[in-house]
Amino acid sequence: MPAWLSVTLLLVVLVLALWGMRAGWRNRARRTALLVPALPTAPADPGAARTEPAEAVYVSSTRAGDWLDRVVAHDLGVRSPAQVQVHDAGVLVRRTGARDVWVPADRLTAVGTTRGQAGKFVGPDGLVVLTWVPDPTTGTALDTALRLRHEADKDPLLTAARALVRPGGGGTGADHDRAVPDSAPRPQEEQA
After folding, report:
1. So what's the pLDDT on residue 185?
2. What residues contact residue 140 under an 8 Å CB cut-off, 6+ apart?
3. Which residues pair with 123 in a beta bridge?
4. Of 168, 174, 97, which is closest to residue 129 (Cα–Cα)?
5. What was the pLDDT predicted at 169?
6. For 87-114, what is each residue's pLDDT tens digit?
7. CA dist., res. 145 & res. 147, Å (int)
8. DSSP 116
9. How far apart are CA 162 and CA 75, in angstroms?
10. 90: Cβ–Cβ under 8 A, 6 or more apart, which residues?
11. What gap in Å lies between CA 106 and CA 165, rounded to an integer?
């Protein structure tokens, strides 16, 4: 086979693969927009700050309890640098290069930690997870994962965010003193 034909076939396969990935992402965005038709916007006054802004990486948001089902509507699937801060009215995640995420206190149902979510695994209790319901009309709960840059920021953030969760709040029966269930596979299960 001539070299030019091999290169041409390789380029065609590459273009088709990229087109397929883009089409898959757009289809996922369309499907998840049905689950999460709208996101709450941060109020002009979110109340007093309960924590200092903490540097973090916004990892992803997935459907609650399904650590692989990434939600990509409304930029929720975009991993990005962020600053997270707990206020009296909720948790604000200010993201660079993507839409900010506002988690109102009355929609926060659980706060905990996990080892990984949607392609990001960092070890035991490496990610902070906020479980919340962005749109009460659908009732779809999300797990939003954050990887804090500094370990010293984790405990104050967890304590302040857990204080926002009302006992039995959100209608999911989540206990605010319990960590988010960790359904991510163990490292030895990933290798099998």
Report:
1. 43
2. 35, 36, 63, 64, 133, 134
3. none
4. 174
5. 53
6. 999 999 999 999 999 999 999 999 999 9
7. 7
8. E
9. 25
10. 42, 46, 102, 103, 104, 105, 107, 108, 164
11. 7
Tell me the helix, strand and coil percentages in the chain, rounded to 5. Answer: 30, 30, 40
Question: Has residue 70 got a pLDDT over 70?
Answer: yes
Q: How many residues does the chain have?
A: 192
Q: Using 50, 70 and 90 to split pLDDT, how confident is the model at 175? A: very low
Q: Report the candidate in 82, 135, 85, 75 with the shortest Cα–Cα distance to residue 107.
A: 135
* Cα 96 off chain centre by: 15
Query: Taking residues 114-134, what's their average pLDDT?
Result: 87
Phi, psi of 41 (to 5 degrees): -100, 150
Token look-up 């041409």 returns 8
> In angstroms, how far is the first alpha carbon of the chain from the final one?
39
Q: Tell me the residue ranges of DSSP E strands in the chain.
A: 54-63, 80-87, 90-95, 101-104, 108-114, 116-117, 120-121, 127-132, 142-148
Q: What are phi and psi of 8, to 5 degrees?
A: -60, -45
HSE-up of residue 186 (Cα within 13 Å, Cβ side): 2
- The closest alpha carbon to 31, from 67, 64, 63, belongs to 63
